[in-house]
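Write out the bound-state structure for flavin-adenine dinucleotide.
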Amino acid sequence: MAKRGLNVAVIDALSGPAEMCSRANAGIIAVGHAKAWAGPGAPAAMINAFAGRDPSVKVTRLTDPTLWRWGVEFLLNCSPSAHRRNTDKLQRLSRYSRDLAAAAEVEMNLPAEIRHQGGLYLFQDKAQFSTYVASIEDHGDGSVEVLGRDALIAREPGLSGMSGRLVGGLFSATDSVGDCRLFTQRTTAYLNQIHNVSLHFKTRVIGLRRANNIIEAVQTNHGDIPCAAVILATGVETSDITHPLGFRATIYPVKGYSGTWKIIDPAGVPTIPYVDETELLAVATYGRKLRVTAIAEFAAHDRSVSEASISHIAEYVRQSFGDAVDLETPEFWAGLRPTTPAGPPYLGRVRMFDNLWVNAGHGQLGWTMSFGCGELLAQRITGEQTSLENVSATASWLV
Ligand SMILES: Cc1cc2nc3c(=O)[nH]c(=O)nc-3n(C[C@H](O)[C@H](O)[C@H](O)COP(=O)(O)OP(=O)(O)OC[C@H]3O[C@@H](n4cnc5c(N)ncnc54)[C@H](O)[C@@H]3O)c2cc1C
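---
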């Protein structure tokens, strides 16, 4: 929006940028992993989660009515055709976004933090690997390569510590990786120097002042900020703002965990980011840091870091990279992925207002899709031809 010459006020309740869900995520621009969670296999996975049989998917707030509303919509999106439709939206958004990410650092003259070196998807189970390989969509660009165990280790020697457990993997050439929080902090510093951007941290939005179908001002704990248009990019708190206006965004906070370790032997850890599809963990390195993320926990807005969850991650690191990192000083974190039942984010104008827009609900792919979603919304708001059509989650209150 600022690039298009508009005056932009960024308002955030926290003390700085990327302090909520973007704080310690895996940082993978995971184009090869852009798949809707809701799909034919998901109901069985949910039953396992309810029964407490899966350490990577947990339901700890069964009585939460929001979870049940969300769950019904999730189940309605589990048919093969809905899964294909939603995955197609996520893939188009991710590929578009990834191309913009590559240009963003250059455009803002930021130090190169994002590495465009591809990403790996690893398997420890033969049957799972074969099923996955059979399901890969060929985009006709040779962007996905199937690798047996030896080829995998040859491509990424940092995986040799876990070679005995691996059966094979896929290399997605279109994936990238970078520290999302660091990138966001640098972007904010850049924006701070631009005359048409003002930053309002430690400022909580408590409402939107409306006159008929126009939002006139954003009401905050520090007073009103007049506006010509509003974009709600408020993650899991979006419904707190939209509900008093008469519509609800179905976004569930799906808790995930990360652990970050200091690397002591760079040769013993991977440089290419990967997702372990069998154990459902993501692993990435930035400089001297190794980060491992995992777990989808349905625990309403509880952000506490549970001992059982972090020991699951810590055990994986000990087994896979125990000699290469300092096992004594990990930092653990939990974040709430703003997740829609279908998968794609809400991206568009709220039907009953002329100037209220939403960009929220990016789930497990918020960093991956961020550049594209921002650009698409700016195109829509300024009346330009949009680069992609039909990528938003379906919402009766959104156009
Ligand atoms: C463990 C884990 C690993 C992940 N790994 C990846 C990955 O590898 N790749 C990837 O693409 N994605 C990943 N994600 C997902 C990604 O981190 C999220 O999708 C993304 O951070 C969501 O960003 P957001 O800005 O929409 O929401 P948030 O980061 O939650 O930001 C919302 C902001 O809105 C502000 N806000 C809300 N309400 C108000 C209000 N009333 N007033 C003022 N401010 C308000 C909050 O203060 C906050 O700063 C991961 C997530 C987790 C938890």
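---
Residues 11-14, 19-22, 25-28, 30, 204-205, 233-235, 237, 241, 256-258, 282, 293, 335, 337-338, 360, 362-368 surround flavin-adenine dinucleotide (CB under 6 Å).
Residues 80-107 form the longest helix (28 residues).
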